[in-house]
Amino acid sequence: MAWVGQAESLSRAGARTGHGAADRLPAVRVIALPVKALAEAKHRLDPVLSPLERGALTLAMLEDVLDVTLAVSGWETWVISPDEAVLEIAMSRGVHAIEEERPPLSSAIAQVDEEAEGRLVDALAVLLPDTPLITQAALSRALRTLGAVVLAPSIDESGTNLLLRRPPGVIGARFGHDSYRRHLQAAADSGVPTAVVEAPELAFDLDVPGDILTVLESRQEGRTLQVCRDLDVGPRLAART
C-alpha cells in the first residue's frame, strides 16, 4: 500500500504547485501531542503517586489537552505514543494516532516530522500534553502568532511546552534538557523570524508533586482536577511538608 501514500503525496504536491487558486489544496496544520508509555510517565511524582495513579493522571491530562486542541478550528490533532491505552483514547476521540517506534521524546518528534513531511504539512505545533491548565483562547493566540518559529517556554524557561514551526523543517526540534534555549539558538542560527509566547496557561506543566497543588488551587474544571481530587493527593502533599 506504500504506493497509495506516494500517489496521494504527489497528487497533493501537484495541487499545491498549481498556478490557479482553485488548484491549491487547503493548508494542512497539525498539533502533535507526544505521550510517553504510561509506566514511564511522570516519575518525579513517585513520592506521592503510585505507578497506576501516575498513569491515570497522565491520561486525564491528555484528555483535557485534547478537549482544547480539538476545539481549535483549522488544525488537526495527532497523538504519538508507544502505549496502547493512549492510542486507544486518541482513536476514540477521532484524532490521528501514531505508534511511537522508539524513545526518547526527540525520536518521537523526529517520527512526527517525517510523517508531516510525507503528508505535506504546512505548520506543525508540538504541544507537550502535561499542560492541563491550557485553554482554547491561549492556544489559539499562540497558533496565530506570526513567525516561522513560535515558542512557549515552561515557567522556569528550561523547557519548551509548545514549538510551532512553519514549515515543519524550518529548524530541527531540540526537545530535552534546556530545550527552550536550544530552540532559540537553532532559530537564530537559521536566521528565521521567531516569536516567544508568554502565557501562564502554556507555561505551566505538571511535573513535580507541588504542581498538583497548583491544579487543585486553580479549580479549573476538567479530568485532571477531578483525578487529583479523587486520589486525595492533598493530604499526602501536606504530610511531606
Describe what this molecule looks like in 3D.
The protein has 241 residues and is α/β, with parallel strands linked by helices. It has a single domain (26-240), classed as Alpha-Beta Complex (Spore Coat Polysaccharide Biosynthesis Protein SpsA, Chain A), CATH 3.90.550.10. The chain contains ten helices and seven strands. It has a seven-stranded mixed β-sheet, with helices on both faces. Helix 2 (51-69) runs antiparallel to helix 9 (223-230). The chain starts with a helix and ends with a helix.
Q: What distinguishing features does this structure have?
A:
241 residues, alpha/beta, Spore Coat Polysaccharide Biosynthesis Protein SpsA, Chain A, 7-stranded mixed β-sheet, 45% helix, globular, disordered N terminus
**What global shape is seen?**
globular
Order of helices and strands: HEHEHEHEHEEHEHHHH
Highest CATH level, the class? Alpha Beta
Q: What is the helical fraction, as a range of percent? A: 40-55%
Spatial extent as radius of gyration: 19 Å
With strands numbered from the N-terminus, the spatial order across the biggest sheet is: 3-2-1-4-6-5-7
- CATH homologous superfamily heading: Spore Coat Polysaccharide Biosynthesis Protein SpsA, Chain A
The number of strands is: 7
Helical/strand content category: alpha/beta
State the major sheet: 7 strands, mixed
How many domains? 1
Separation, N- and C-terminal Cα atoms: 58 Å
The low-confidence runs, each spanning 5 or more residues with pLDDT under 50, are 1-15, 17-22
> What is the residue-mean pLDDT, rounded to a whole number?
90
What is the level-2 CATH architecture name?
Answer: Alpha-Beta Complex
Output the CATH topology: Spore Coat Polysaccharide Biosynthesis Protein SpsA, Chain A
| Strand residue percentage | 5-15%
Number of helices: 10
